[in-house]
Each structure stands twice: as structure tokens, then as C-alpha cells.
Design goal:
Blueprint: H1 7-24, H2 31-38, H3 42-70, H4 72-91, H5 96-124, H6 130-137, H7 140-159, H8 161-182, H9 190-193, H10 199-204, H11 208-239, H12 243-267, H13 273-291, H14 298-326, H15 333-362, H16 366-389
Helix pairs in contact: 1-5, 1-7, 1-8, 3-4, 3-5, 3-15, 4-5, 4-8, 5-6, 5-15, 6-12, 6-14, 7-8, 7-12, 11-12, 11-14, 11-15, 11-16, 12-14, 13-14, 13-16
């Protein structure tokens, strides 16, 4: 942790995270042209969307140790390089098979970035600014996804999916240069950074609080997926909105998560952690049923869904801000971020089919019930993590 915050480095790392998150959502706005050009079935398309998260779900803990061993700056640029190469290959891909392998490579790069970036931010922020800077980091994913949704549909419709993919690759270059000149070198050597503990020891020595806050991220990931993946379907089925209108509304709702994370950064040093968690959870519980009530008017549905997503932004920010506080030493921040990335990605992979199954079998009333269950589980995990720290 720095004595004075290096905001230039923090913002450069944040922009890399936003650009990386855009790659998670890059496929969806180009779905029609991509599927047509590649003769891609729905099953393959689904894999194309989700493969980028597979590496995080399987290798998050390993990545956490590797970041400690190699240094977060090195890991950040290594991940950025792999992501860029994967994007270039995908852009020029002659076949669906090549594109799938490129997507796997993108996933490895994305994993390195999302583990190294918050580790770097924690290192470059002062104790006073730690919660604020990590709350900012908590906005990287919704901002990246929303940016991809807004720009990707337009560019892929006007110029085709290859131009849209190429633009994404080009965007990585200026943010890489900015980070290259802004982020200080990693101190020491790989041997010095990993001295005193091998990989298995570092992982086994992660405190219980880190595992608990990771499970909290799993819960809030499931809440976010339940809201954002099902809101457009609800609007189309219940209110007969077009796919374009429902998607636009959902994109706007998703942006409120950013406001929630920024609010957390503002109040984190003024209000106790448990009170923030309980307040955001209460807002979620109050919003879930009105948002998906079968006879609610569209403005009511949208307003309460936005409030619920706003609350998830607060909770996500609380997870990232908790890591430096919950681990006993700076060298455990990387493995803790890897653990959190892995657990959260498990939720991203398994959440949509689980949520879809219960709605298909029990109707739309199952959705707010699941949101309530996931919210209460987050509260339990977060409060338990804070208690375990003491």
C-alpha cells in the first residue's frame, strides 16, 4: 500500500479492466452477423459467449499465485498481450474452430488482467484511498459490458463483426501505452516475491474471511445475472417489447450498478461495513418483487430493477474493497483476488442455466424468490467475513 495514491496508475489499470470487460460482452451485439457468416448454431454461439470466463472458473487460484510470483505489473501486461493476440486471431479467423480457440486465449488474458489489476490498485492506493479506488475498480465490468452493448450493435451492423472486433483490438493499444508509462515496476525478483511460501502454502494460508467474501461475490454474481439476463426476457414476454427495446432498457439499467459502486467509495470511510451491506441488501429485498410483479407497469418494472442493480453495485464494490482488509499481508492480495475471480466465474458459468430452469418450471415468481435467497446468503457471507477478520 502506497503512502500517497498514484491515481494516474490506478486510472490506467482501471481502463485496461474496462477494455478487457468489453471483450466479455463483445460477442452478443454482433450475434446476427457472426452466426450468419460462420454458420454458427445456438449451442456453439453460447460457447462463444461464455468461453472467456472458463479460464477464470478453473484457474483463478493458480493465477493468483502466478501474479504474486511474477509481479502484478508483469502479469497485467502479459494478460493484455494474450488478450490482444486472441482478439487479432479472432478478427482474422477463417473458421469457427479457430475463433473458439482464440476465445480461450482471450479468457486466459482476461483472467490475468482481472487478478493483477485490483492487486496493483491496492498497491498504488494509500490507506485513505483504498476503499475509494477499489470501489472504482468494482465498476469496470458493468462499464465494459455496457460500452460493448452500446457501440457493438451499431458498429457490427454498419461495418460487420470483423471491424467491430478490430476496433476492440485497436482500443487495447493506447490503454496499454498509458499503463506502460504510468504503472511503476514490480519491486524485487520473482524469487524474492515468493520467498517463504510456495504456491500451495500461499493458497492454503488464505484466511477464512477471503473464502467467505469470495462466496459473497458468488451470491451477488447470481443476483446480477438473475436481474440482467432475465429482465429483457420479462419485458418481451410480459410487455411485448421488441428485442432491441428490451436490450436497450436492460443496458441502461445495468449502468446503475456503476452509481452504486461509486456511492460505496464515497461512504466507505464514513459508515461501518456491515451497515453498508445491510442497507444495500434491504434495498435489494424491497425491489425484487415489485420489479418482476406480473401486473406491474413497465416504468415500475424498470425503476425497481434499476434500484436492485444499483444495490448490487454497492455490494460488488464492497467485495473488492474488502480484500486488502481481510488478508493478513500484501502478498496474499493476489491469491485472494484469484480466489474471488474463480468463485465469481463459477457463478457466471452456472447461474444462467440454473436461473432459467427455475423460471421455466415455477414461473416468474421464482425470480424474486431467488434474488431474496442470494441476497440473504451474501449478507451472511459478508458479515461472517468481517467477523472472521477480527
Amino acid at each position: 500500500m502506497a503512502t500517497k495514491s498514484n491515481w494516474k496508475a490506478i486510472l490506467a489499470v482501471y481502463l485496461i479492466g474496462v477494455a478487457a470487460a468489453a471483450q466479455v460482452g463483445r460477442i452478443v451485439p454482433a450475434a446476427n452477423s457472426l452466426r450468419e457468416d460462420m454458420a454458427m448454431g445456438l449451442s456453439t454461439y453460447g460457447w462463444m459467449v461464455s468461453l472467456i470466463t472458463c479460464a477464470s472458473a478453473v484457474l483463478g487460484l493458480v493465477a493468483g499465485y502466478w501474479v504474486v510470483r511474477r509481479g502484478p505489473r508483469f502479469a497485467l501486461f502479459a494478460g493484455l498481450t494474450v488478450l490482444f493476440v486472441g482478439l487479432v486471431v479472432a478478427t482474422a479467423s477463417p473458421s469457427m474452430t479457430v475463433m473458439l480457440f482464440a476465445r480461450v486465449a482471450e479468457g486466459l488474458g482476461y483472467l490475468a488482467i482481472v487478478v493483477a489489476a485490483p492487486t496493483l490498485i491496492a498497491r498504488e492506493a494509500s490507506a485513505k484511498d483504498s476503499a475509494r479506488s477499489l470501489a472504482l475498480w468494482g465498476t469496470f465490468f458493468p462499464l465494459g459490458i455496457s460500452t460493448a452493448a452500446i457501440t457493438g450493435g451499431l458498429l457490427s451492423e454498419l461495418f460487420g463483426w470483423r471491424v467491430w472486433f478490430g476496433v476492440n483490438a485497436a482500443v487495447l493499444l493506447p490503454v496499454a501505452v498509458l499503463a506502460l508509462v504510468s504503472v511503476p515496476a514490480d519491486p524485487g525478483t520473482p524469487q524474492q516475491r515468493s520467498s517463504g511460501a510456495d504456491g500451495r502454502q500461499l493458497l492454503s494460508l488464505l484466511p477464512v474471511s477471503a473464502w467467505l467474501i469470495g462466496l459473497g461475490l458468488l451470491s451477488v454474481t447470481l443476483i446480477t445475472l438473475a436481474l440482467l439476463s432475465m429482465l429483457p426476457v420479462f419485458l418481451m414476454e410480459r410487455h411485448e417489447h421488441s428485442q432491441r427495446t428490451a436490450g436497450g432498457i436492460t443496458g441502461a439499467v445495468a449502468m446503475t450498478s456503476i452509481l452504486g459502486s461509486l456511492l460505496y467509495g464515497w461512504v466507505a470511510n464514513r459508515i461501518s461495513e456491515n451497515r453498508i451491506v445491510l442497507g444495500a441488501a434491504a434495498l435489494l429485498l424491497a425491489s425484487a418483487f415489485p420489479a418482476f410483479h406480473p401486473v406491474a407497469a413497465v416504468p415500475v418494472t424498470v425503476a425497481f430493477a434499476a434500484l436492485a442493480i444499483f444495490a448490487t453495485g454497492v455490494l460488488v464494490a464492497s467485495v473488492f474493497a474488502a480484500v486488502p482488509r481481510l488478508v493478513p499481508s500484501p502478498e496474499r492480495i493476489g491469491p485472494a483476488n484469484g480466489l474471488i475471480a474463480q468463485i465469481g466465474s463459477v457463478g457466471a458459468l452456472t447461474g444462467p442455466p440454473i436461473i432459467g430452469f427455475f423460471i421455466a418450471t415455477s414461473g416468474w415468481t421464482a425470480l424474486p424468490v431467488m434474488i431474496v435467497i442470494f441476497t440473504l446468503s451474501f449478507v451472511g457471507f459478508a458479515i461472517s467475513a468481517n467477523a472472521a477478520q477480527r
